[in-house]
Specification:
Length: 235
């Protein structure tokens, strides 16, 4: 990429493996639309919020209906055309909005379990990305995975810096151009609000999110038929 310097992490940031094969950006599906947000706030909330069971009526459950297996929170359910939230994974999730209302997600809602019944761990895979680049979600409250835990894990995991060896293992010239373009677009996007923050983002170098080649719109999560495999979808 003439006139530009691509930066890398000085130390490997992936889990220890013998070899790591980066994904092929050209294999990603194509779509459009995104929404971004600035820095995500601290979220150490140890309270488990639950709806009252008193009264003659019951509140609508925020979880997807399923006759068997785990039920995802409605803001995590996969939909290509109408995802529950607007979230550009290049940017922090703190001002992510609800798709239907363009309003922010209430803090109380972000503290709700991501899955019903609640789980203490969650692993997400992304189609066409290296299996070594899975997203591991852990509970910030020490008990169960919350909605906020999922969004933050997606954002921060995809911000992992790429090593020079990973970058140089991209064999296709077209794929290399896509990654480089995604890197430039990302730091320019971040710099739209604050040029100094954008410059810091540029200095941070290529990250895993750049291997998505611009497909950074969060579409949700699906559960495979085994009830244990979770897939993160983006476009």
């Amino acid at each position: 990429m003439p006139g530009k310097h691509v930066r890398f992490a000085t130390l490997p940031t992936l889990h220890t493996t013998s070899t790591v094969t980066p994904p092929s950006p050209s294999r990603l599906s194509h779509s459009s639309h995104y929404y971004g947000s600035p820095h995500s706030p601290s979220y150490h909330d140890h309270r488990h919020h639950s709806e009252s069971r008193h009264g003659s009526t019951s509140p609508r459950s925020p979880y997807s209906y399923s006759s068997r297996g785990p039920q995802l929170h409605k803001y995590l359910v996969y939909s290509h055309s109408h995802p529950g939230v607007r979230f550009d994974v290049r940017l922090p999730p703190s001002t992510m909005t609800i798709s239907s209302s363009s309003t922010y997600i209430p803090q109380r809602t972000l503290s709700e379990p991501a899955i019903s019944p609640p789980v203490a761990s969650l692993t997400l895979s992304i189609p066409h990305l290296s299996p070594h680049w899975r997203i591991f979600v852990t509970p910030s409250n020490g008990v169960f995975i919350t909605l906020r835990d999922v969004f933050d894990a997606v954002y921060y995991t995809l911000r992992t810096r790429i090593t020079e060896s990973e970058y140089r293992s991209i064999r296709s010239p077209d794929d290399l151009k896509r990654v480089n373009r995604a890197y430039v677009d990302r730091y320019r996007k971040v710099g739209e609000r604050d040029k100094y923050v954008g410059e810091a983002e540029k200095q941070g170098g290529v990250r895993r999110v750049d291997f998505l080649a611009g497909h950074t719109r969060f579409e949700g999560i699906s559960v495979m038929s085994d009830g244990r495999t979770y897939v993160l979808h983006m476009s």
